[in-house]
């Protein structure tokens, strides 16, 4: 049995509060002041996780994403750059919730279950966002790592969540993955993506949510040099307050520091607090707000890749393309992607891990939640088929330059995308490159299809258990037929009505989504369904 002589003494410095912690899709997330013991104990756990993977690097990011500053959280990044394996989520919950005197015993149990060699040195990469409680929580994490011993931690400091995923993935491949490498890799790929583009650089305004994205977007823009013209707003205020992707999407209104007169011709991109999601918007002809969300991003990417493949192959290729959505995706998006583009749409359970898993079924798997969190995955078939085409082009001098350029852009495309996780900054580069190639304005992009008017609300409840969904259809409630009947009756009142409720995986919060023929009706339906939720 492996002994942990320093763990018990260190645990005393980080006592567990009388709280039950749950590791969900977003990791652990709650009020920041409650998380000291969780961070300490995850410091212990990630050392074991690294050793279980033969000493490969594991990442830890301290963030609560789009939540307000007083909240915080933590998520673990596996050596592949993906989210923590589901089997280890169970261990995370176990060690976070055991009694203080049981911590060492739980570590020993994990060691035995996973046949972990204690002599293997562990390596951890950590990062944090700009929340008030983040420095103290990172210190607790480092205390846990040190308590196990024979482990090294590389602290990236203030970074976006995608930067940690990027670094972990590349470092385990023997490639540079630090912040400077991040800027260089994506800036170089962006320039290559502009091959053949004839449109000029047009200004972009980036809403930084007063978070880490506000710190990093100017650095990426500097790396792009003359290929970008970015202005960053909302850089120093309260995190995610009246700014950022979640505010823009859920409130469907402008963030702070937008002048609807002076900025009438501008294109805007809003990132969230840890820069892992992005939505676009613009000022319409009446001076009003107009959102271009993750559904439109998916559609734009699917259209672009299909068009490029058609040019490169001079006909329809055998490349499989799929778009993965959740129940929150606008119904009009699926109708356009399937009906107009002929690209299949897979509806998945809400949560990036479900979308990410399904996207792996395609040569090109595109997934974006409507909130702007998403990415593109390129399977082995993508590379194999394009490399075969590249070989064919090399021996055929008659191939037109337009086809050759399309192939070069397609081969470069995976370098422009952070395939480990949704990444607001790399997603912005992908969108901007496509708009440059097509010489489109944001209004032309938005015109691909007209969204069904919708509203997304969040409300705190005493108990989210009555709102658990069916295992195979989260648009229907599993255990509450009376609540479901009331929602169905409300939906039936409205033309093109659609509404469902879904509980948060980490908080006592229920989200309400509604669609209808007009915005007024969508708002009314959402509020009526929320009233049903609050009455429980």
Descriptive overview:
With 536 residues, the chain is an alpha/beta fold. It has 18 helices and 17 strands. It has helices spanning 7-12, 36-52, 86-97, 103-114, 134-148, 161-172, 179-193, 212-224, 245-251, 294-313, 331-339, 352-359, 380-394, 401-412, 424-438, 442-446, 481-491, 519-534, and strands at 28-31, 57-62, 71-77, 122-128, 151-158, 204-207, 230-233, 267-271, 278-283, 289-292, 321-325, 345-347, 364-368, 374-378, 454-460, 498-503, 509-515. Strands 1-3-2-4-5 form a five-stranded mixed sheet, sandwiched between helices. A five-stranded mixed sheet has the order 7-6-8-9-10, sandwiched between helices. Strands 12-11-13-14 form a four-stranded mixed sheet, sandwiched between helices. Strand 11, helix 11 (331-339) and strand 12 (345-347) form a beta-alpha-beta unit. Helix 2 (36-52) crosses helix 3. The termini are far apart.
């Amino acid at each position: 049995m492996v002994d942990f002589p320093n763990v018990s003494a260190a645990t005393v410095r980080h006592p567990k509060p009388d709280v039950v912690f749950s590791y969900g899709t977003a990791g652990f997330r709650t009020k920041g002041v409650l998380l000291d013991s969780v961070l300490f104990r995850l410091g212990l756990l990630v050392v074991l996780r690294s050793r279980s993977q033969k000493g490969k690097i594991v990442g830890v990011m301290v963030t609560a994403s789009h939540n307000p500053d007083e909240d915080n959280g933590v998520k673990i990044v596996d050596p592949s750059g993906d989210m923590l394996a589901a089997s280890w989520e169970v261990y995370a919950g176990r060690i976070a919730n055991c009694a203080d005197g049981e911590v060492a015993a739980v570590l020993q149990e994990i060691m035995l279950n996973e046949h972990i060699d204690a002599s293997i040195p562990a390596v951890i990469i950590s990062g944090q966002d700009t929340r008030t409680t983040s420095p103290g929580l990172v210190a607790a994490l480092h205390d846990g790592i040190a308590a196990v011993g024979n482990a090294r931690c590389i602290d990236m400091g203030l970074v976006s969540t995608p930067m940690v995923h990027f670094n972990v993935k590349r470092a385990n491949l023997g490639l540079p993955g630090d912040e400077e490498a991040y800027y260089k890799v994506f800036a170089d790929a962006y320039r290559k993506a502009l091959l053949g583009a004839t449109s000029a650089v047009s200004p972009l305004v980036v809403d930084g949510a007063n978070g880490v994205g506000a710190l990093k977007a100017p650095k990426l823009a500097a790396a792009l040099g003359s290929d970008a013209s970015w202005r960053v707003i909302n850089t120093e205020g309260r995190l995610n307050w009246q700014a950022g992707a979640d505010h823009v999407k859920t409130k469907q209104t402008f963030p702070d520091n937008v002048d609807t007169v002076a900025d009438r011709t501008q294109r805007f991109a809003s990132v969230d607090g840890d820069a892992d999601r992005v939505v676009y918007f613009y000022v319409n002809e009446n001076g009003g707000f107009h959102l271009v969300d993750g559904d439109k991003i998916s559609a734009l990417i699917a259209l672009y890749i299909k068009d490029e493949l058609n040019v490169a192959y001079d006909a329809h290729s055998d490349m499989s393309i799929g778009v993965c959505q959740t129940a929150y995706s606008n119904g009009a998006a699926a109708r356009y992607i399937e009906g107009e583009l002929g690209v299949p749409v897979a509806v998945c359970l809400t949560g990036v891990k479900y979308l990410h898993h399904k996207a792996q079924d395609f040569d090109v798997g595109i997934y974006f939640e409507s909130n702007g969190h998403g990415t593109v995955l390129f399977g082995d078939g993508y590379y194999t088929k394009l490399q075969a085409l590249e070989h064919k082009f090399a021996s055929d001098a008659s191939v037109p330059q337009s086809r050759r350029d399309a192939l070069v852009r397609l081969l470069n495309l995976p370098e422009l995308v952070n395939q480990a996780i949704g990444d607001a900054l790399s997603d912005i580069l992908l969108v901007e490159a496509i708009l440059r190639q097509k010489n489109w304005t944001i209004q032309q992009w938005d015109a691909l299809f007209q969204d069904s008017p919708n509203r997304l609300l969040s409300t705190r409840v005493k108990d989210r258990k009555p709102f658990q969904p069916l295992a195979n259809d989260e648009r229907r409630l599993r255990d509450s037929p009376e609540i479901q009947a009331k929602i169905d009756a409300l939906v039936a009142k409205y033309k093109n009505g659609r509404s469902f409720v879904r509980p948060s995986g980490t908080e006592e919060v229920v989200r309400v989504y509604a669609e209808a023929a007009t915005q007024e009706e969508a708002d009314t339906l959402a509020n009526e369904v929320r009233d049903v939720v609050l009455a429980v």
